[in-house]
Amino acid sequence: MRKPKKKAAPSGNRREDLLRVCARLFREKGFDGTSIRDISQAAGMHSGSPFYHFETKQEMLVAVMEQGLEEGLRHLEAVAALKLPPAEKFRKLVRAHLETICGEGHDFIPVMLYDWRSLTPANRRRVIALKDRYDALWQKVTDELQAQGIMGGDAQLARLFTFGVLNWTARWYRAGGRKSLDEIAEEAARFLLRE
Amino acid sequence: MRKPKKKAAPSGNRREDLLRVCARLFREKGFDGTSIRDISQAAGMHSGSPFYHFETKQEMLVAVMEQGLEEGLRHLEAVAALKLPPAEKFRKLVRAHLETICGEGHDFIPVMLYDWRSLTPANRRRVIALKDRYDALWQKVTDELQAQGIMGGDAQLARLFTFGVLNWTARWYRAGGRKSLDEIAEEAARFLLRE
DNA sequence: CCTACCGATCGGTAGG
DNA sequence: CCTACCGATCGGTAGG
Q1: Distance A26 CA to C3 C1' (A)
Q2: Distance (Å, rounded) from C-alpha A135 to C-alpha A119?
Protein backbone atom coordinates (compact mmCIF):
# COMPACT_ATOMS: atom_id res chain seq x y z
CA MET A 1 0.00 0.00 0.00
CA ARG A 2 1.15 3.54 -0.70
CA LYS A 3 2.39 5.82 2.00
CA PRO A 4 0.04 8.61 3.12
CA LYS A 5 1.26 11.86 1.63
CA LYS A 6 1.60 13.90 4.77
CA LYS A 7 1.93 13.16 8.43
CA ALA A 8 -1.49 14.84 8.81
CA ALA A 9 -1.69 18.17 10.57
CA PRO A 10 -1.68 17.38 14.28
CA SER A 11 -5.27 17.40 15.43
CA GLY A 12 -6.77 17.30 18.87
CA ASN A 13 -8.85 14.27 18.26
CA ARG A 14 -7.89 11.78 15.59
CA ARG A 15 -10.95 9.68 16.34
CA GLU A 16 -13.18 12.59 15.40
CA ASP A 17 -11.21 13.18 12.21
CA LEU A 18 -11.61 9.55 11.35
CA LEU A 19 -15.33 9.68 11.96
CA ARG A 20 -15.75 12.70 9.71
CA VAL A 21 -13.84 10.92 6.97
CA CYS A 22 -15.99 7.82 7.42
CA ALA A 23 -19.17 9.86 7.19
CA ARG A 24 -18.08 11.53 3.98
CA LEU A 25 -16.91 8.35 2.29
CA PHE A 26 -19.83 6.21 3.46
CA ARG A 27 -22.20 8.82 2.11
CA GLU A 28 -20.46 9.05 -1.24
CA LYS A 29 -19.66 5.41 -1.89
CA GLY A 30 -21.69 3.45 0.61
CA PHE A 31 -20.48 1.39 3.54
CA ASP A 32 -19.68 -1.71 1.51
CA GLY A 33 -18.17 0.38 -1.24
CA THR A 34 -15.71 2.02 1.12
CA SER A 35 -12.62 0.08 2.13
CA ILE A 36 -10.56 0.49 5.29
CA ARG A 37 -7.75 1.56 2.98
CA ASP A 38 -9.93 4.32 1.50
CA ILE A 39 -10.60 5.55 5.01
CA SER A 40 -7.00 5.31 6.17
CA GLN A 41 -5.68 7.17 3.17
CA ALA A 42 -8.24 9.96 3.43
CA ALA A 43 -7.39 10.36 7.10
CA GLY A 44 -3.65 10.33 6.40
CA MET A 45 -2.99 7.11 8.26
CA HIS A 46 -1.62 3.70 7.40
CA SER A 47 -4.02 0.92 6.65
CA GLY A 48 -4.00 -0.82 10.01
CA SER A 49 -4.32 2.31 12.12
CA PRO A 50 -8.06 2.91 12.11
CA PHE A 51 -8.36 -0.22 14.22
CA TYR A 52 -6.51 1.57 16.97
CA HIS A 53 -9.60 3.79 17.26
CA PHE A 54 -12.40 1.41 16.32
CA GLU A 55 -12.69 -2.32 16.87
CA THR A 56 -14.36 -3.05 13.55
CA LYS A 57 -15.56 -1.31 10.44
CA GLN A 58 -19.08 -1.96 11.64
CA GLU A 59 -18.31 0.09 14.76
CA MET A 60 -17.35 3.01 12.54
CA LEU A 61 -20.75 2.79 10.87
CA VAL A 62 -22.77 2.86 14.09
CA ALA A 63 -20.59 5.62 15.47
CA VAL A 64 -21.30 7.77 12.41
CA MET A 65 -25.03 7.19 12.67
CA GLU A 66 -25.19 7.73 16.41
CA GLN A 67 -23.19 10.93 16.30
CA GLY A 68 -25.35 12.22 13.46
CA LEU A 69 -28.56 11.47 15.30
CA GLU A 70 -27.31 12.92 18.58
CA GLU A 71 -26.24 16.19 16.99
CA GLY A 72 -29.44 16.38 14.99
CA LEU A 73 -31.54 15.73 18.08
CA ARG A 74 -29.73 18.41 20.03
CA HIS A 75 -30.57 20.94 17.33
CA LEU A 76 -34.16 19.87 16.87
CA GLU A 77 -34.94 19.64 20.57
CA ALA A 78 -33.68 23.17 21.05
CA VAL A 79 -36.06 24.37 18.35
CA ALA A 80 -38.94 22.26 19.64
CA ALA A 81 -38.54 23.81 23.10
CA LEU A 82 -39.20 27.32 21.75
CA LYS A 83 -42.50 28.91 22.64
CA LEU A 84 -43.99 29.38 19.21
CA PRO A 85 -47.23 28.71 17.36
CA PRO A 86 -47.16 25.15 15.91
CA ALA A 87 -46.93 26.27 12.29
CA GLU A 88 -44.02 28.58 13.05
CA LYS A 89 -42.22 25.92 15.05
CA PHE A 90 -42.80 23.45 12.22
CA ARG A 91 -41.19 25.80 9.74
CA LYS A 92 -38.10 26.12 11.91
CA LEU A 93 -37.91 22.37 12.42
CA VAL A 94 -38.10 21.81 8.69
CA ARG A 95 -35.22 24.22 8.13
CA ALA A 96 -33.11 22.60 10.85
CA HIS A 97 -33.83 19.12 9.56
CA LEU A 98 -32.92 20.00 5.99
CA GLU A 99 -29.66 21.44 7.26
CA THR A 100 -28.65 18.15 8.90
CA ILE A 101 -29.55 16.29 5.73
CA CYS A 102 -28.28 18.52 2.94
CA GLY A 103 -26.06 21.05 4.67
CA GLU A 104 -22.38 21.48 3.90
CA GLY A 105 -20.37 18.82 5.76
CA HIS A 106 -23.45 17.15 7.19
CA ASP A 107 -22.82 13.61 6.06
CA PHE A 108 -23.74 11.75 9.23
CA ILE A 109 -27.51 11.44 8.99
CA PRO A 110 -27.50 10.72 5.25
CA VAL A 111 -25.35 7.69 6.03
CA MET A 112 -28.20 6.46 8.19
CA LEU A 113 -30.73 7.15 5.48
CA TYR A 114 -28.65 5.37 2.85
CA ASP A 115 -26.91 2.54 4.65
CA TRP A 116 -29.40 1.29 7.20
CA ARG A 117 -29.23 -2.19 5.64
CA SER A 118 -25.53 -2.54 6.47
CA LEU A 119 -26.11 -2.41 10.23
CA THR A 120 -26.02 -5.67 12.12
CA PRO A 121 -29.31 -6.42 13.91
CA ALA A 122 -27.76 -5.65 17.29
CA ASN A 123 -26.47 -2.28 16.16
CA ARG A 124 -29.74 -1.58 14.47
CA ARG A 125 -31.39 -1.75 17.86
CA ARG A 126 -28.91 0.75 19.28
CA VAL A 127 -29.67 3.24 16.53
CA ILE A 128 -33.41 2.66 16.70
CA ALA A 129 -33.39 3.94 20.28
CA LEU A 130 -32.19 7.31 19.01
CA LYS A 131 -34.43 7.25 15.98
CA ASP A 132 -37.41 6.75 18.26
CA ARG A 133 -36.70 10.08 19.93
CA TYR A 134 -36.57 11.70 16.51
CA ASP A 135 -39.90 10.20 15.57
CA ALA A 136 -41.49 11.22 18.86
CA LEU A 137 -40.37 14.81 18.44
CA TRP A 138 -41.89 15.07 14.98
CA GLN A 139 -45.00 13.18 15.96
CA LYS A 140 -45.64 15.72 18.69
CA VAL A 141 -45.49 18.66 16.29
CA THR A 142 -47.57 16.79 13.75
CA ASP A 143 -50.22 16.16 16.39
CA GLU A 144 -50.26 19.85 17.28
CA LEU A 145 -50.70 20.78 13.66
CA GLN A 146 -53.53 18.33 13.29
CA ALA A 147 -55.22 19.67 16.42
CA GLN A 148 -55.22 23.05 14.70
CA GLY A 149 -56.57 21.55 11.51
CA ILE A 150 -53.50 22.59 9.52
CA MET A 151 -52.64 18.99 8.71
CA GLY A 152 -55.09 16.19 8.13
CA GLY A 153 -55.40 12.44 7.75
CA ASP A 154 -53.95 9.68 9.87
CA ALA A 155 -51.46 11.18 12.33
CA GLN A 156 -48.73 8.57 11.90
CA LEU A 157 -49.01 8.56 8.13
CA ALA A 158 -48.83 12.36 8.10
CA ARG A 159 -45.50 12.14 9.92
CA LEU A 160 -44.17 9.49 7.54
CA PHE A 161 -45.25 11.53 4.53
CA THR A 162 -43.51 14.54 6.04
CA PHE A 163 -40.33 12.53 6.50
CA GLY A 164 -40.65 11.49 2.89
CA VAL A 165 -40.76 15.05 1.60
CA LEU A 166 -37.84 16.09 3.77
CA ASN A 167 -35.57 13.05 3.66
CA TRP A 168 -35.95 12.64 -0.07
CA THR A 169 -34.28 16.01 -0.59
CA ALA A 170 -31.00 14.28 0.28
CA ARG A 171 -31.34 12.50 -3.07
CA TRP A 172 -31.74 15.44 -5.34
CA TYR A 173 -30.51 18.58 -3.58
CA ARG A 174 -27.23 19.95 -4.84
CA ALA A 175 -25.58 23.01 -3.38
CA GLY A 176 -25.56 25.81 -5.92
CA GLY A 177 -28.65 24.50 -7.69
CA ARG A 178 -31.75 26.35 -8.79
CA LYS A 179 -33.10 26.70 -5.26
CA SER A 180 -31.24 27.42 -2.04
CA LEU A 181 -31.77 25.33 1.06
CA ASP A 182 -33.65 28.23 2.62
CA GLU A 183 -36.02 28.42 -0.32
CA ILE A 184 -36.57 24.69 -0.36
CA ALA A 185 -37.26 24.67 3.37
CA GLU A 186 -39.83 27.43 2.99
CA GLU A 187 -41.56 25.77 0.06
CA ALA A 188 -41.54 22.37 1.74
CA ALA A 189 -43.16 23.80 4.85
CA ARG A 190 -45.77 25.54 2.75
CA PHE A 191 -46.38 22.37 0.76
CA LEU A 192 -46.83 20.31 3.90
CA LEU A 193 -48.97 22.87 5.69
CA ARG A 194 -51.07 23.42 2.55
CA GLU A 195 -50.68 27.16 2.69
CA MET B 1 -18.23 -23.88 -2.81
CA ARG B 2 -21.30 -25.96 -1.99
CA LYS B 3 -23.34 -27.62 -4.64
CA PRO B 4 -26.71 -26.05 -5.42
CA LYS B 5 -29.41 -28.18 -3.80
CA LYS B 6 -31.52 -28.87 -6.85
CA LYS B 7 -31.00 -28.78 -10.56
CA ALA B 8 -33.55 -25.95 -10.56
CA ALA B 9 -36.95 -26.58 -12.05
CA PRO B 10 -36.51 -26.17 -15.78
CA SER B 11 -37.55 -22.66 -16.68
CA GLY B 12 -38.12 -20.99 -19.99
CA ASN B 13 -35.69 -18.22 -19.37
CA ARG B 14 -32.83 -18.60 -16.94
CA ARG B 15 -31.73 -15.05 -17.56
CA GLU B 16 -35.04 -13.77 -16.26
CA ASP B 17 -34.83 -16.02 -13.22
CA LEU B 18 -31.38 -14.69 -12.55
CA LEU B 19 -32.57 -11.12 -12.85
CA ARG B 20 -35.39 -11.71 -10.39
CA VAL B 21 -32.94 -13.21 -7.92
CA CYS B 22 -30.60 -10.26 -8.39
CA ALA B 23 -33.41 -7.79 -7.78
CA ARG B 24 -34.45 -9.50 -4.56
CA LEU B 25 -30.92 -9.83 -3.17
CA PHE B 26 -29.78 -6.36 -4.23
CA ARG B 27 -32.82 -4.92 -2.53
CA GLU B 28 -32.29 -6.85 0.67
CA LYS B 29 -28.54 -6.63 1.03
CA GLY B 30 -27.42 -3.98 -1.41
CA PHE B 31 -25.36 -4.40 -4.56
CA ASP B 32 -21.99 -4.42 -2.81
CA GLY B 33 -23.35 -6.62 -0.05
CA THR B 34 -24.44 -9.30 -2.50
CA SER B 35 -21.82 -11.65 -3.89
CA ILE B 36 -21.92 -13.55 -7.15
CA ARG B 37 -21.97 -16.66 -5.02
CA ASP B 38 -25.10 -15.44 -3.21
CA ILE B 39 -26.76 -14.93 -6.57
CA SER B 40 -25.63 -18.25 -8.04
CA GLN B 41 -26.82 -20.21 -5.05
CA ALA B 42 -30.20 -18.50 -4.92
CA ALA B 43 -30.65 -19.22 -8.61
CA GLY B 44 -29.55 -22.82 -8.25
CA MET B 45 -26.44 -22.44 -10.34
CA HIS B 46 -22.73 -22.87 -9.80
CA SER B 47 -20.67 -19.85 -9.04
CA GLY B 48 -19.27 -19.16 -12.47
CA SER B 49 -22.52 -19.62 -14.35
CA PRO B 50 -24.12 -16.19 -14.00
CA PHE B 51 -21.36 -14.91 -16.27
CA TYR B 52 -22.81 -17.00 -19.04
CA HIS B 53 -25.81 -14.65 -18.94
CA PHE B 54 -24.21 -11.35 -17.92
CA GLU B 55 -20.76 -10.03 -18.67
CA THR B 56 -20.24 -8.41 -15.29
CA LYS B 57 -21.99 -7.94 -11.97
CA GLN B 58 -22.43 -4.30 -12.91
CA GLU B 59 -24.42 -5.43 -15.98
CA MET B 60 -26.79 -7.30 -13.66
CA LEU B 61 -27.37 -4.08 -11.74
CA VAL B 62 -28.26 -1.96 -14.77
CA ALA B 63 -30.41 -4.74 -16.16
CA VAL B 64 -32.41 -4.85 -12.93
CA MET B 65 -32.91 -1.10 -12.90
CA GLU B 66 -33.77 -0.86 -16.59
CA GLN B 67 -36.28 -3.69 -16.43
CA GLY B 68 -37.87 -2.15 -13.36
CA LEU B 69 -38.19 1.25 -14.96
CA GLU B 70 -39.49 -0.15 -18.23
CA GLU B 71 -42.21 -2.20 -16.55
CA GLY B 72 -43.11 0.70 -14.28
CA LEU B 73 -43.32 3.07 -17.22
CA ARG B 74 -45.56 0.70 -19.14
CA HIS B 75 -48.00 0.62 -16.23
CA LEU B 76 -47.92 4.34 -15.55
CA GLU B 77 -48.22 5.38 -19.17
CA ALA B 78 -51.29 3.20 -19.53
CA VAL B 79 -52.86 4.98 -16.57
CA ALA B 80 -51.76 8.41 -17.77
CA ALA B 81 -53.42 7.80 -21.13
CA LEU B 82 -56.86 7.37 -19.54
CA LYS B 83 -59.36 10.14 -20.06
CA LEU B 84 -59.92 11.23 -16.48
CA PRO B 85 -60.01 14.39 -14.43
CA PRO B 86 -56.46 15.23 -13.22
CA ALA B 87 -57.17 14.47 -9.55
CA GLU B 88 -58.65 11.09 -10.40
CA LYS B 89 -55.78 10.24 -12.69
CA PHE B 90 -53.34 11.31 -9.99
CA ARG B 91 -54.95 8.95 -7.52
CA LYS B 92 -54.58 6.04 -9.91
CA LEU B 93 -50.97 6.94 -10.67
CA VAL B 94 -50.18 7.05 -6.96
CA ARG B 95 -51.64 3.59 -6.50
CA ALA B 96 -49.74 2.20 -9.47
CA HIS B 97 -46.49 3.77 -8.36
CA LEU B 98 -46.80 2.43 -4.81
CA GLU B 99 -47.39 -1.00 -6.26
CA THR B 100 -44.10 -0.94 -8.18
CA ILE B 101 -42.29 0.24 -5.06
CA CYS B 102 -43.85 -1.77 -2.24
CA GLY B 103 -45.81 -4.50 -3.99
CA GLU B 104 -45.12 -8.19 -3.52
CA GLY B 105 -42.19 -9.24 -5.69
CA HIS B 106 -41.55 -5.73 -6.96
CA ASP B 107 -37.89 -5.42 -6.11
CA PHE B 108 -36.63 -3.81 -9.30
CA ILE B 109 -37.36 -0.14 -8.76
CA PRO B 110 -36.36 -0.18 -5.09
CA VAL B 111 -32.93 -1.33 -6.24
CA MET B 112 -32.71 1.86 -8.23
CA LEU B 113 -33.86 3.93 -5.27
CA TYR B 114 -31.34 2.28 -2.95
CA ASP B 115 -28.30 1.52 -5.07
CA TRP B 116 -28.00 4.40 -7.45
CA ARG B 117 -24.50 5.11 -6.15
CA SER B 118 -23.22 1.74 -7.30
CA LEU B 119 -23.81 2.49 -10.97
CA THR B 120 -20.81 3.43 -13.07
CA PRO B 121 -21.13 6.90 -14.63
CA ALA B 122 -21.73 5.41 -18.08
CA ASN B 123 -24.53 3.15 -16.85
CA ARG B 124 -25.95 6.00 -14.84
CA ARG B 125 -26.51 7.83 -18.10
CA ARG B 126 -28.35 4.84 -19.55
CA VAL B 127 -30.71 4.70 -16.60
CA ILE B 128 -31.21 8.45 -16.50
CA ALA B 129 -32.72 8.30 -19.98
CA LEU B 130 -35.51 6.13 -18.61
CA LYS B 131 -35.82 8.10 -15.40
CA ASP B 132 -36.37 11.23 -17.47
CA ARG B 133 -39.48 9.71 -18.99
CA TYR B 134 -40.71 8.91 -15.50
CA ASP B 135 -40.12 12.47 -14.38
CA ALA B 136 -41.81 13.92 -17.45
CA LEU B 137 -44.91 11.80 -16.91
CA TRP B 138 -45.29 12.96 -13.31
CA GLN B 139 -44.42 16.52 -14.16
CA LYS B 140 -47.26 16.59 -16.67
CA VAL B 141 -49.84 15.47 -14.11
CA THR B 142 -48.40 17.84 -11.53
CA ASP B 143 -48.75 20.72 -13.99
CA GLU B 144 -52.37 19.77 -14.65
CA LEU B 145 -53.08 19.72 -10.94
CA GLN B 146 -51.48 23.10 -10.50
CA ALA B 147 -53.48 24.52 -13.40
CA GLN B 148 -56.59 23.46 -11.51
CA GLY B 149 -55.27 25.00 -8.30
CA ILE B 150 -55.25 21.64 -6.49
CA MET B 151 -51.50 21.77 -5.99
CA GLY B 152 -49.45 24.87 -5.37
CA GLY B 153 -45.92 26.21 -5.20
CA ASP B 154 -43.03 25.72 -7.60
CA ALA B 155 -43.97 23.06 -10.15
CA GLN B 156 -40.70 21.16 -10.11
CA LEU B 157 -40.46 21.19 -6.34
CA ALA B 158 -44.03 19.96 -6.09
CA ARG B 159 -43.05 16.94 -8.17
CA LEU B 160 -39.96 16.26 -6.08
CA PHE B 161 -41.97 16.54 -2.88
CA THR B 162 -44.50 14.12 -4.33
CA PHE B 163 -41.73 11.67 -5.17
CA GLY B 164 -40.52 12.04 -1.61
CA VAL B 165 -43.85 11.07 -0.10
CA LEU B 166 -44.22 8.12 -2.44
CA ASN B 167 -40.68 6.79 -2.71
CA TRP B 168 -40.09 7.04 1.01
CA THR B 169 -42.79 4.46 1.61
CA ALA B 170 -40.32 1.86 0.35
CA ARG B 171 -38.43 2.48 3.59
CA TRP B 172 -41.17 1.89 6.08
CA TYR B 173 -43.96 -0.05 4.42
CA ARG B 174 -44.27 -3.65 5.49
CA ALA B 175 -46.88 -6.03 4.09
CA GLY B 176 -49.33 -6.98 6.80
CA GLY B 177 -48.78 -3.75 8.71
CA ARG B 178 -51.34 -1.38 10.18
CA LYS B 179 -52.34 0.01 6.80
CA SER B 180 -52.78 -1.76 3.50
CA LEU B 181 -51.18 -0.48 0.33
CA ASP B 182 -54.61 0.61 -0.89
CA GLU B 183 -55.21 2.65 2.24
CA ILE B 184 -51.76 4.22 2.08
CA ALA B 185 -52.26 5.12 -1.56
CA GLU B 186 -55.57 6.78 -0.81
CA GLU B 187 -54.21 8.73 2.15
CA ALA B 188 -51.09 9.76 0.26
CA ALA B 189 -53.16 11.10 -2.62
CA ARG B 190 -55.39 12.99 -0.20
CA PHE B 191 -52.36 14.34 1.63
CA LEU B 192 -50.76 15.54 -1.58
CA LEU B 193 -53.95 16.96 -3.04
CA ARG B 194 -54.80 18.63 0.28
CA GLU B 195 -58.28 17.23 0.37
C1' DC C 1 -0.21 4.79 15.49
C1' DC C 2 3.21 1.95 11.98
C1' DT C 3 5.02 -2.56 10.08
C1' DA C 4 4.29 -6.65 8.12
C1' DC C 5 1.31 -9.91 7.40
C1' DC C 6 -2.79 -13.49 7.14
C1' DG C 7 -6.87 -16.12 5.80
C1' DA C 8 -11.04 -15.37 3.48
C1' DT C 9 -13.60 -13.86 -0.06
C1' DC C 10 -14.31 -11.40 -4.07
C1' DG C 11 -15.38 -10.81 -9.30
C1' DG C 12 -14.15 -12.99 -13.12
C1' DT C 13 -12.08 -16.50 -16.68
C1' DA C 14 -10.47 -20.61 -19.68
C1' DG C 15 -11.83 -24.67 -21.36
C1' DG C 16 -14.99 -27.87 -21.92
C1' DC D 1 -24.11 -24.02 -17.86
C1' DC D 2 -20.16 -26.74 -14.82
C1' DT D 3 -15.19 -27.33 -13.33
C1' DA D 4 -11.29 -25.63 -11.58
C1' DC D 5 -8.89 -21.90 -10.86
C1' DC D 6 -6.54 -16.98 -10.48
C1' DG D 7 -5.03 -12.44 -8.99
C1' DA D 8 -6.67 -8.77 -6.30
C1' DT D 9 -8.56 -6.94 -2.48
C1' DC D 10 -10.79 -7.20 1.72
C1' DG D 11 -11.22 -6.64 7.07
C1' DG D 12 -8.48 -7.45 10.64
C1' DT D 13 -4.28 -8.70 13.80
C1' DA D 14 0.33 -9.31 16.41
C1' DG D 15 4.02 -7.03 17.93
C1' DG D 16 6.30 -3.12 18.53
Answers
A1: 27
A2: 19
Any idea where the domains of chain B sit in the sequence? 58-192
Q: Which chain B positions have a beta carbon within 8 Å of A172's beta carbon?
A: 160
The runs of H, that is alpha helices, within A81-176 are 86-102, 108-115, 121-147, 155-172
Q: Which of B116, B117, B187 is closest, CB to CB, to A153?
A: B187
pLDDT digits (tens, 9 = 90+) for B173-183: 999 999 999 99
What kind of fold does domain B58-192 have according to CATH?
A: Tetracycline Repressor; domain 2 (1.10.357)
> What class is the A56-192 domain?
mainly alpha
Return chain A residues 23..62 having CB < 7 Å to nucleic acid strand D: 34-38, 47-48, 51, 55-58
Over the stretch B82-120, which tens digit does the pLDDT of each residue have?
A: 999 999 999 999 999 999 999 999 999 999 999 999 999
C-alpha to C-alpha distances, A48 to A19, A55, A56, A81, nearest whole angstrom: 16, 11, 11, 44
Read off the pLDDT of residues B3-32 as tens digits, 9 standing for 90 and up: 443 334 445 588 999 999 999 999 999 999
Question: Over the stretch B38-77, which tens digit does the pLDDT of each residue have?
Answer: 999 999 999 999 999 999 999 999 999 999 999 999 999 9
